[in-house]
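User: Sequence recovery, please. Input:
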């Protein structure tokens, strides 16, 4: 594996800490929810809210479909390998984990899109803070998932190189 530069290692350590600190700060803010009166509501908002609600629900359904199909595909692949090989395959578990992690990242993106849509029409300050906390939390999850996927792929590449080197000898 290649060595990380000191600045890259520093950034990799600082980014999660900054995201966690931002999440704690946002959740620690005490903002009173000021309800908007119906008289101040724009008539266009009455039409937009249901449409945006349906779009947000569609994004959540898309996330559920994407993640659910990846889970079923992973289970089917595992069971298929287990039946064909007659034992628990070690390599396929890591492959399934990495594939599921990639799909979870996509699913998280759909859920972030849903939250952004829900906040898009006439947000209050509390709605924006809640969205910020959710986005920060999901960004943190994405960061760690991508980091684990990258490390897993590097480990698989290294194993393949060793297998090729052993075969060549």
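Assistant: Recovered sequence (169 residues):
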């Amino acid at each position: 594996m290649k060595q990380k530069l000191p600045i890259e290692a520093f950034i990799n350590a600082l980014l999660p800490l900054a995201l966690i600190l931002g999440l704690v700060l946002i959740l620690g803010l005490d903002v009173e929810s000021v309800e908007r009166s119906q008289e101040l509501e724009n008539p266009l908002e009455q039409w937009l809210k249901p449409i945006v609600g349906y779009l947000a629900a569609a994004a959540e359904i898309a996330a559920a479909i994407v993640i659910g199909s990846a889970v079923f595909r992973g289970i089917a692949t595992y069971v298929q390998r287990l039946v064909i090989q007659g034992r628990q395959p070690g390599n396929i578990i890591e492959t399934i984990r990495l594939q599921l992690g990639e799909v979870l990242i996509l699913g998280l993106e759909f859920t972030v899109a849903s939250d952004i849509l829900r906040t898009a029409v006439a947000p209050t300050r509390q709605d924006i803070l809640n969205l910020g906390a959710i986005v920060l939390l999901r960004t943190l999850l994405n960061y760690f998932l991508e980091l684990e996927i990258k490390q897993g792929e590097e480990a698989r590449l290294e194993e393949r190189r060793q297998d090729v080197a052993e075969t060549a000898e």
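Confidence is low (pLDDT under 50) at residues 33-39.
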